[in-house]
Design goal:
heterodimer; A: alpha/beta; two-stranded parallel sheet; 15 helices; 47% helix; B: alpha/beta; ten-stranded mixed β-sheet; globular
């Protein structure tokens, strides 16, 4: 099966909005190479459960591709046409299982040493696409906030090592009511700029019930889902023929109803929660990984204007001697290790935020919870410097947001 | 074909802040070189003269080689780059000054731990299933070594982290194959067999593969049995368990077993694959760093053991190298240190350290080499011919 043979009836299993989208753009899909189309369909088939920013991106991509002249299309896709795919990929049901197809394509490219060439081709395409799509100006500059170190009384090592060259380090912050102040700022932005899924609060532990208007997700709130998923995985692993790829495919097909998720939940958000646990490695085990991966995915997918992330202590990794002795330790969390995890995660949050539009106006703040240390990266503040100004968090975030 | 995933959709749809792969690869090797220069190491290209490797037959017969893979997957910025040096005080302070250091080693193959380690052992970029216990498609260094030099089975050993590595000792090639390769010990498997499910929570520790944490392939090939603990390592099950209870990680157990092998069997070719670092797949940066620091310490411990063993002291060459790196922080297709899926420069570019018998001390070599060059280099050093290897001998060893 090649893209040129595509027919509307082949998409009957697609969710309603995805089906309509394909029908409207079938002509252009027929013109594109097999090494490319399933990757696009992987996005399209999820259209009904995507955030507005993602839908806009898919719409924009299809519209852009439809607007290319034949010679432009040849130019854009010449690189993708160079990859000869084996017959087994051609015969695979890539229309209904595009994600599984791309996994198989990935394996094929690795094993035939074509991965690097494909990677270059994909990046060139991405660059071309982004430069072709007009991005509307943001209603307000993006603001990212990370709160790290919950439960750590003292820490003598250097914090924010990776971020210091990019921003201003503050060492006289007044920590009182800091978290509340940050949540209030996030809520105020949500109220002033009410964009759907535009303002988020992610908590790696138990969330604070503050911050009206924010889209929220926490490790504690997904605990029932996490438990039922782990149980599901354990059940699957014992089955004959189940390997890592099969398990991954199995998990990718899960829907919220398979795990008896609360039906009253927003379907977009419940699908997002499920994917955090099924696609993120380690998110089921460590709360710091959950918070970091959720942050990455919120930024990549929802492209929020405001994102406040608070890390909490993760469970402790018990060393071998302790496990073999089967002794229980009093402390089952690792606050200091979690601080190190979160410090790196803050750096990644800033990197991922800077990939989005409006990066030249965006601001980022990271604060060691309950302590005097913070760092701000903002266009209005100098880089690689230290400030001794005594500020509270409300003042600091005002400074960051300019 | 089951290989590591990569995320080309992200590459297309997410702007990257990356520099070009070539720039990064160059920067990686430069940062190592500049740092090592600061330690007083000299540039290899500036040195003239014949190889210091002793090639007399008598010396060759006594020669021992130990290969340690600094696994699984460590980046430059957490190891030899200036900001990473605090994590490897033993490599930097103790081993590097005694070593020839190769700053620019690339792995052009599949970046999965089993398949990459198999490629290191065959000198060919293997394409086997990364997640199951299958033998390499090409002859391994152990087969070349034993066949060409007529060495007994007891002279080549592998200590490896997980069930998936059980077939790494020998290929399925007709002219070599079963019975002609290395003996393989899987310490974690021994631990699992010894504990026999009596210890709660041990599954978490003994999981086979951090990339697929809930899956352990069935063992295939010749299994090192529990009773061989007694007959080969002179170690009772009770002593084995008793010692394991004093160790903090599976890699510590591997080094303990390796040292035991050196005492009891004194193999001429010993290959140790470390794996603790791969806990990075769980996404916890602090655990990844802990793994690097532990591996650094274990490498030094192993080198000290070499100096104290009469069979090894003075005639052993040890190689330390990661199987590959991990994804760069700035690559949109990955998630930084957590995985090695993008195939970017940071995940493909590593280093290698050679120290001991016949190796120039305190020299830095900048010439690019590939990880598959190791096998032909070992061939040149030990006197066997790795006919099917696609690598090239490192000229500094010729």
């Amino acid at each position: 099966m090649l893209p040129r043979e595509l027919q509307p009836a082949q998409f009957s299993a697609y969710p309603p909005q995805a089906g309509k989208l394909v029908a409207a753009h079938l002509e252009v899909l027929r013109e594109l190479p097999l090494s490319f189309v399933p990757g696009l369909l992987r996005e399209v088939i999820e259209y009904d459960y995507k955030f507005p920013a993602e839908r806009a991106a898919v719409d924009g991509e299809l519209t852009t591709l439809g607007g290319l002249s034949p010679s432009e299309r040849t130019d854009w896709f010449h690189g993708f046409e160079q990859f000869d795919l084996p017959a087994q990929l051609e015969h695979f049901d890539w229309i209904n299982s595009p994600a599984q197809f791309t996994e198989k394509l990935s394996a094929y490219l690795w094993s035939t040493h074509q991965l690097d060439a494909y990677r270059r081709t994909a990046e060139e395409y991405g660059t071309r696409l982004r430069s072709s799509i007009h991005a509307d100006p943001l209603p307000v500059a993006r603001l990212g906030i990370t709160v790290i170190g919950q439960g750590v009384a003292e820490y003598d090592e250097l914090l924010f090592k990776n971020l210091r060259p990019h921003g201003t380090y503050f060492n006289q912050i007044r920590p009182e009511n800091g978290l509340e102040a940050l949540l209030d700022v996030a809520a105020a932005r949500a109220k002033s700029h009410p964009v759907p899924y535009g303002h988020w609060y992610v908590d790696g532990g138990s969330e604070l019930h503050r911050g009206e208007g924010l889209t929220r997700i926490s490790y504690q709130s997904i605990e029932p889902l996490r438990t039922s998923l782990l149980k599901y995985m354990q059940g699957r692993i014992g089955r004959p023929g189940m390997g890592p790829e099969e398990l991954r495919t199995d998990l990718a097909r899960l829907t919220p109803s398979d795990l008896a998720m609360n039906r009253s939940l927003d379907p977009v958000l419940s699908r997002f929660q499920l994917k955090i646990l099924t696609e993120g490695s380690g998110t089921q085990i460590f709360s710091t990984t959950f918070a970091q991966w959720t942050t990455r995915e919120v930024l990549r997918r929802a492209q929020p204007l405001t994102l406040l992330v608070r890390f909490a202590p993760r469970q402790r990794q018990r060393p071998m001697n302790e496990l073999l002795s089967d002794t229980r330790s009093d402390s089952q969390v690792d606050p200091v290790g979690s601080l190190v995890d979160a410090d790196m995660a803050a750096y990644y949050q800033w990197i991922n935020q800077q990939r989005l539009t409006g990066d030249n106006r965006a601001a980022f703040l990271v604060w060691f919870e309950g302590h005097a240390q913070a760092l701000v990266v903002a266009p209005t503040l100098p880089r690689g410097t230290t400030s001794n100004s005594a500020l509270d968090l409300k003042q600091l975030v005002a400074l960051a947001a300019g | 074909m089951k290989q590591p995933e990569f995320e080309h959709e992200s590459m297309m749809r997410t702007p990257s802040l990356r520099r070009s792969d070539r720039e990064i690869a160059h920067g990686l090797s430069s940062s190592r070189r500049e740092f090592l220069r600061g330690t007083g190491m000299a540039m290899g290209a500036a040195l003239m003269g014949a190889s210091p490797l002793v090639r007399a037959e008598a010396a060759r017969k006594k020669r021992k080689v130990i290969v340690v893979t600094f696994g699984g997957g460590a980046r430059d910025q957490e190891t030899f780059a200036p900001e990473g040096q605090e994590n490897i005080p033993h490599l930097i302070g103790e081993l590097a000054p005694q070593s020839s250091f190769f700053t620019h080693v690339t792995n052009q193959g599949i970046l999965g731990h089993y398949v990459a380690t198999a490629s290191l052992t065959t000198g060919v970029y293997e394409t086997l299933n990364n997640f199951s216990a299958v033998p390499p498609d090409h002859p391994t260094v152990f087969e070349y070594f034993r066949k060409d030099l007529r060495r007994p089975a007891s002279d080549a050993w592998v200590v490896a982290p997980s069930n998936g590595f059980n077939r790494i000792g020998e290929s399925n090639c007709r002219s070599y194959g079963p019975g002609t390769g290395a003996e393989v010990i899987l310490p974690k498997h021994l631990l699992s067999a010894t504990s026999a499910g009596n210890i709660s929570d041990l599954d978490h520790l003994l999981r086979d593969n951090y990339e697929s944490p809930m899956y352990t392939p069935q063992l295939g090939g010749n299994e090192f049995e529990l009773q061989q603990l007694e007959t080969i390592l002179r170690l009772s099950v009770e002593d084995f368990m008793g010692h394991a209870r004093t160790l903090s990680s599976p890699d510590e157990l591997s080094v303990y077993i390796a040292k035991r092998l050196m005492q009891q069997e004194a193999p001429s070719l010993l290959w140790i694959t470390m794996h603790d670092i791969d806990v990075a797949h769980s996404g916890a940066y602090s655990l990844y760093i802990e793994g690097i620091r532990r591996t650094d310490r274990l490498c030094a411990e192993l080198w000290k053991a070499v100096q104290t063993q009469p069979e090894y002291a003075g005639n052993t060459t040890m190689f330390v190298l990661p199987d590959f790196g991990r994804d760069a922080d700035y690559d949109a297709g990955g998630n930084g240190f957590q995985h090695h899926r993008t195939g970017d420069a940071a995940s493909r570019t590593t280093w290698m350290m050679a120290l001991g018998a016949g190796v120039r001390q305190g020299v830095v070599y900048d010439e690019p080499m590939q990880s598959i060059d190791l096998v032909p280099s070992l061939g040149a050093m030990l006197g066997f011919t790795p006919a099917e290897s696609q690598g090239r001998p490192i000229k500094e060893f010729l």
